[in-house]
Amino acid sequence: MIDVKHVMEIAERFLADTDMFVVECKISPMGDIELLIDSDTAVKLEDCAALNRAIEAELDREVEDYSLMVASAGIGTELKLLRQYNKIIGSSVEVLLKDGIKILGTLDEATEAGITISYDEKVAVEGKKRKELQHIIREIAFSDIKSAKEYLDYK
């Protein structure tokens, strides 16, 4: 069976002198290889095709049959690496916490420990009947995040 580590090594070697990087590699028991890449700027279709050809050149179909798909981690794809978070600082993100709370806000900062997001929330204020809108800045540890992705508002 083709090894994930081997495919990632080939991809990382090919992407070494670019601003692109490997996000994730999955291989199914049937030999379906799915490689997800991203970039600090943009990933073009030609980049995916060139990487696909480079990987196919190093894998032997005679030894093992496989299918290979190289794709870009587009908008709406779950963020997995700190480098992806850093790329979208200032953008809207949707964060689902492990306790089930979903937060929609602006990504202000990303560190090795976690992220800082800001958002507006209606909060009960003592002595007032109605909730008031307050600007919240919240630090969230990566260990508390179930999933996070860039959010696009289509309004």
Structure summary:
By secondary structure, this protein is an alpha+beta fold. The chain is built from 3 helices and 8 strands.
Low-confidence stretches: none
**Biggest sheet, strands in spatial order?**
7-6-5-4-8
Cα gyration radius (Å): 20 Å
End-to-end gap = 47 Å
Q: Which structural class should the secondary elements be placed in?
A: alpha+beta
Q: How would you describe the shape?
A: elongated
List the secondary-structure elements in sequence, H or E. HEEHEHEEEEE
In terms of DSSP E residues, the strand content is: 35-45%
Total number of helices: 3
Give a short account of the largest sheet: 5 strands, antiparallel
Helix content: 10-25%
Q: Mean of the pLDDT scores?
A: 93
Beta strands, count: 8
Describe the structure.
The protein is α+β, with helices and mostly antiparallel strands and 155 residues long. It has three helices and eight strands, in the order αββαβαβββββ. It has helices at 4-15, 45-58, 82-87, and strands at 20-27, 32-39, 67-72, 92-97, 102-110, 114-123, 132-141, 145-150. A hairpin with an 8-residue loop joins strand 6 and strand 7. The chain is elongated, with a radius of gyration of 20 Å.
Sequence-ordered SSE layout with sheet pairings:
Layout: H1 4-15, E1 20-27, E2 32-39, H2 45-58, E3 67-72, H3 82-87, E4 92-97, E5 102-110, E6 114-123, E7 132-141, E8 145-150
Helix pairs in contact: 1-2
